[in-house]
Amino acid sequence: MTKSLLYRDAFAYSPAPPTSNDAVSDRIRLLMKLRNSGINDTRVLSAIEHTPREMFVEEAFREHAYDDTALPIASGQTISQPSVVAWMTWALDVSPRMRVLEVGTGSGYQAAVLARMARRVYTVERHRDLLAQAEERFRSLKLNNLVTRRGDGSRGWKEAAPFDRIIVTAAAAEIPQPLIEQLSPGGVLVIPVGDNAADQLLLRIRKDEQGGLHTDKMMAVRFVPLVQDK
Ligand code: SAH
Q1: CB-CB contact of 77 with 58 (8 Å)
Q2: pLDDT score recorded for residue 24
Q3: 76 CA distance to ligand 1 middle (Å)
Q4: Helices in the chain by DSSP H: which ranges?
Q5: Catalytic site positions
Q6: Most distant CA pair in the chain: distance in Å?
Q7: What would the CATH number be for the domain defined by 21-220?
Q8: What is the 104 CA–ligand 1 centroid distance (Å)?
């Protein structure tokens, strides 16, 4: 396995794919920045360290792959800002035996990060072309524990439910009820909620063993809208 440059005792993840020296040093710089901003969970840092973000951005933005910014992808969507991916991944608190649902595959970056931490990741995207590109990336990274589906992810993935963790990477006006229903007792849902782009809050919702819900407000965020079928 690749030795972590940042810390000892990294998880036994599969090696990072071969990539340019520039990309590697940019990635290390980003990891330092994430650590300085308070993200010190080694599971999260290691998963980001082993996920080449340059493979998930458009050719034209490749040199900005490790800037801490969201970037445009196809179909008018965006790949999330790395620090937001890191905080959401941290908030989700994933461990290796878990099954995770992601709504909003987009570039596939967040799903790829999660796939290094969970047993299996189910990811749903409404745009066919985005999903096809993401699937290609998963194949070339040999991420075999990712399952994809095209459709409206606000309905969840009933056949595969319940999930230990659910992450939504598009903003909803309200939390879709099927996602609450498809969350296991003891499960965690991380979702940006808000009517418009300027007024969204990232929420973490824990479902207790009795089915009670406990909500933490995490931070202000800016996501593309969750588009629900009628
Ligand atoms: N997680 C992504 C971020 C994608 S942006 C990444 O790492 O790149 C949000 C994505 O959610 C967009 O691709 C958008 O098409 C998708 N989306 C919006 N509404 C959706 C819905 N109801 N079901 C599934 N995907 C949806």
Answers
A1: no
A2: 85
A3: 10
A4: 21-36, 42-49, 82-92, 109-115, 128-140, 177-181
A5: 80
A6: 50
A7: 3.40.50.150
A8: 3
Reported in sequence order, the residue ranges of the chain that DSSP labels E, i.e. its strands, are 71-72, 78-79, 99-103, 120-125, 146-150, 163-168, 183-193, 200-207, 213-221
CB of 148 within 8 A of CB of 134? yes
What tokens were used for 139? 């194949």
Residue with tokens 């047993």: 119
| pLDDT mean by block of 10 residues, the chain; 230 residues | 43 55 90 96 97 96 96 96 98 98 98 98 98 98 98 98 98 97 98 90 98 97 94
Best residue among 125, 137, 143, 148 to mutate for probing ligand 1's pocket (most ligand atoms within 8 Å of CB) is 125
Residue (of 182, 5, 168, 177) closest to 84 by Cα position: 168
Say whether pTM exceeds 0.85.
yes
Of all protein residues, the one whose alpha carbon is nearest to atom 13 of ligand 1 is 106
Rounded to the nearest angstrom, the distance between the alpha carbon of 105 and the centre of ligand 1 is 5
